[in-house]
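Just wondering, does anyone understand these tokens?
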Amino acid sequence: MRKKLQLHKLACIALTITMVGCTDLKEQVIDEVLGSNNSNPENALAAAYGQMGDATFVDHTNVFGLSEYSTDEAMLPTRGSDWGDNGVYRAIHEFTWGPDNSLVTNTWNNLNAGITKSLTAISTINNKADFTNKKLFLAEARALLVFYTYHTLDLYGQAPYRDPYNANAQVEVRKAATAIDDLIKEMETILPDLANLKEQNTNNGRFTKQAAYGVLADMYMNRAVFKDRYATGGFNFKEAAVDNNGTDMDKVIYYTSQIINNSQFQLESNYFKNFDIDNNGRPELVFVVSQNINNLRGSDNDFAYMPMERNQKPSPNNRGTNAVCTTPQFYHTWDNNHADPRFSRHYQYSDGTWFMNDGSDTSVPASSKVANSGGLPWFHFNRGMQVGQQYGPKISGTGFEMSPANRIKVFKLFCEKNTTLPADFTPELDFSDPVQSVFTQAQINRGVRIFKFEFDPEKDNATSNVDIPLVRLGGMYCLRAEAYFRNGQTDLALADINKLRTTRTRESLYANAPGVALTALTEQALYNELGFEMYWEMQRRKQAIRFGKFEAADPGSAKPESKPFRRIYPIPQSTMDATKIYQQNDKY
């Protein structure tokens, strides 16, 4: 069962002010264990969890933006009069960001807030007299500290730390090259104290042993990058593991296998079920940011909201924003693979009607209703890659335009900000200036859109019931396949990739056809397959760096050739101005 969350305000502690300079943060707290005293262990631990959903891993201007907009998977161009914002979004894709970029600053501050709250939880739990869940809560708080610190080191190469067991300890700076081993040791140390998923009242929104296995696999996969960030001749993926028991890749294989071989996790045949509004507790999701629309807290739908055209309306109360698209480079990796069940999927209504989105639709039933909205009809868009002319409902008065048979009429859609321009999503971008991702008002339809996450039709654009996957079984197969490949075990890597391809099936419109197995696996093919499985899940930047793709130019998307120093982001200028403890990253 989903843990219900409620909104609670906590004062920022002195450590938070020292590390991130925040004021008045809003926290999510688990109401089953909520107490009125802000210093109690349950409150402190819930606050540490809450930071994941407080923009950090759910908003497009945080970890998603830095992990995706800097790659071939996603970009947020300026579209006519929208999304200029002094170039802060374009800078990430054009590789011109600096220490004053707001995405760089927002993400740093939010990850630092996660570190702070985890340290506070550790200290609070440790200082409390023995209670029933002390060992478990302390392990979870320590795991969260590793989690937030790991992502900070990944993106910035540095992270703050203060000994939570020493009230007089000073803030210090951890560096990626040395801290990665400490993080691995810490996570491995606390493993025995973490619960197995669904034991001790845990769910996949809590840090369990299985969540730890997934994070450990990711840390070992990227350990070589952390140790030699600016390497120009490739990374040493076969270094001896931290405990000298095998290599980094052996550890990736071991930890991913702990999840893959666990019978409570199963790959979804319908790939998009992992990203549905009702994905809570799905058998492929190991660790998630738990989200729930209610009257007590916020949640976020940016991963669905940002790619949709403003005139694509799942309900009369909601719309998209015509912003984020993928690049021609990533879209064309799918050439000759459009039958892959992960590429796209049509929606079927309860009466059997399929939304084809090809001009043949005249209406769809109004039987699907938006919860908590007075019975408003819910129009379901298709999922995956949306390319070409788009179709959907129109607003008439305060509702959808309906047919005489009380069905939702379907129309050819035009862009809201240019009403004579068809909403025809083109694979090619064709910027007027090839080094700037800027569209005129006559070009705002360009770019294939990714509808991977289901769009919530309720309330407004900032709310969502979709749990955001952080560790997913499909991702474990990807990591293990890559580790096998780097170990020279290509046959085993191919088997894992084909397990993903053939387990996913198309909709019944296409006779539930499974994906087609590969007969061979090259490095480029493996890189493509990681993209097919993990796109839009904040993994592409790390993948691109490991495969030596991150600096390459992409002329079709205004991405220039870059230098290795951009494999990490700068420490924000506001932080550099406020404290002397950081040394700015190289060439920033």
